[in-house]
Design goal:
By secondary structure, this protein is mainly beta. A four-stranded antiparallel sheet has the order 1-28-27-26, with no helix packed on it. Strands 2-3-4-5 form a four-stranded antiparallel sheet, with no helix packed on it. A four-stranded antiparallel sheet has the order 6-7-8-9, with no helix packed on it. β24 and β25 form a beta hairpin.
C-alpha cells in the first residue's frame, strides 16, 4: 500500500490522530466509606483528598498506595481542597462553615470560621490569587476571600443569589466563579471584591465548574445542558461543544499543562479528554459502575479524579 494511502487510512481509523492519547489508568482504593469529593496533587508526589462522608482530609502516597487521614472536627463535611506553595492543604468545609488549613508536615488542623452573617454558606471550592489570598465560593449565595497572612475573612453576597460553585484563577490574576443554580459565570475584581456577571449563550445551562487555560480563556462544565463551553474574555466570545452520548452530565472540568480539557460525565460513568484543536473527545470509562468522579485536578503528565461512588482515586498518566 502507498505510504500516503496507509496514513490516511490510519487517520480515518483514529490510530494516527494526536487526540488518541496513549495513557495508563490506575486506581487507588481508599478506606471504606470515605466518599472522596475533591483531589489536589501536591509537589511532593502525594495527593490530598477530601473524605466528605468521614469529615476528614486524606493524603495518598501513590508510590505505596498508603493513605493517612486527619479528622477536621465534629460536624465536618469537607468539599474542596487545594494546596499552597508551602505544601499545606486548604479545605472548604460546608459542615464546619469554615476554611480549614492542614499543615503538610504534622497534619495540624487550623480552622477559620466564616463570619456570622455568612452562616450556612454551603462552601464549595477555592483558589489562590497572585497575592496568595484564598478565594472561595458558597452555594447559598456568597463568595469570599481569606488572607492567610492576616487571618482576615471577607464575604460578599453573590449578585444573583444562590449558586456560586466552581472558581478559577487566570494567568493575568483574574478570579472567576461559576454559578450552578443561577447558570452564569462571573469575574471578581481581586482588589474590590466586586463581581461582574457574564451570561452564557445557553439559558439554564447549569455552569458548575470553571478552569482557565494558559491563555486566560475560561472553560466551563455545564451540568444541565451537557456541554463544555469556553469563554474568551479578550474577545467576549463563547463557544460550546456537546459531550458525546445521550443525556451527558458534565460535572468537573480541568485544563492540563498542554491546554487539553478534562471532564467527568456522570451519565457515561467516564472521564473525558477534549482536544480543542481537533474538537474531539476521548473517553476513559471507569471499570466500576457509579464512579461519580466529582472533581479533577492534576500535575504535568497526570490527571487525577476522585471516585466518590467507589471510594477510590483515579489517575490517568499520559
Amino acid at each position: 500500500m502507498h505510504p500516503l494511502l496507509a496514513f490516511c487510512l490510519l487517520l480515518l481509523l483514529g490510530v494516527a490522530s494526536p487526540t488518541l492519547l496513549a495513557a495508563q489508568v490506575q486506581y487507588y482504593q481508599l478506606p471504606h466509606g470515605t466518599g472522596p469529593h475533591d483531589v489536589a496533587p501536591a509537589a511532593d508526589g502525594r495527593v490530598w483528598y477530601t473524605a466528605q462522608r468521614q469529615g476528614a482530609l486524606g493524603r495518598l502516597d501513590p508510590r505505596s498506595g498508603a493513605t493517612e487521614q486527619v479528622a477536621l472536627g465534629a460536624g465536618s463535611a469537607p468539599h474542596g481542597v487545594i494546596v499552597d506553595a508551602q505544601g499545606d492543604a486548604w479545605v472548604t468545609d460546608s459542615g464546619l462553615n469554615a476554611i480549614v488549613r492542614v499543615d503538610g508536615g504534622p497534619l495540624a488542623v487550623e480552622v477559620f470560621p466564616l463570619p456570622a452573617h455568612a452562616a450556612d454558606a454551603n462552601l464549595n471550592t477555592a483558589v489562590f490569587d497572585k497575592q496568595g489570598r484564598l478565594w472561595f465560593t458558597g452555594q447559598a449565595g456568597i463568595y469570599g476571600r481569606l488572607d492567610p497572612a492576616t487571618r482576615q475573612i471577607e464575604v460578599w453576597p453573590a449578585p444573583l443569589g444562590r449558586g456560586p460553585y466552581g472558581i478559577a484563577a487566570t494567568p493575568d490574576g483574574g478570579i472567576w466563579y461559576a454559578s450552578l443554580a443561577a447558570s452564569h459565570i462571573a469575574s471578581i475584581d481581586p482588589a474590590t471584591g466586586v463581581a461582574t456577571l457574564i451570561q452564557p449563550p445557553t439559558e439554564g445551562q447549569g455552569a458548575r465548574r470553571i478552569w482557565s487555560d494558559s491563555r486566560g480563556r475560561l472553560w466551563v462544565s455545564e451540568w444541565h445542558s451537557g456541554q463544555v463551553s469556553r469563554y474568551d474574555p479578550a474577545e467576549h466570545r463563547w463557544q460550546s461543544w456537546p459531550l458525546p452520548g445521550s443525556s451527558p452530565r458534565p460535572y468537573s472540568v480541568y485544563v492540563d499543562e498542554q491546554d487539553q480539557v478534562w471532564l467527568t460525565d456522570f451519565s457515561a460513568n467516564a472521564i473525558l479528554r477534549f482536544d480543542p484543536a481537533q474538537q474531539r473527545f476521548q473517553s476513559f470509562p471507569s471499570d466500576r459502575a457509579g464512579a461519580n468522579v466529582r472533581q479533577m485536578h492534576g500535575r504535568a503528565g497526570e490527571a487525577w479524579g476522585a471516585e466518590s461512588g467507589t471510594d477510590r482515586l483515579v489517575v490517568i498518566r499520559y
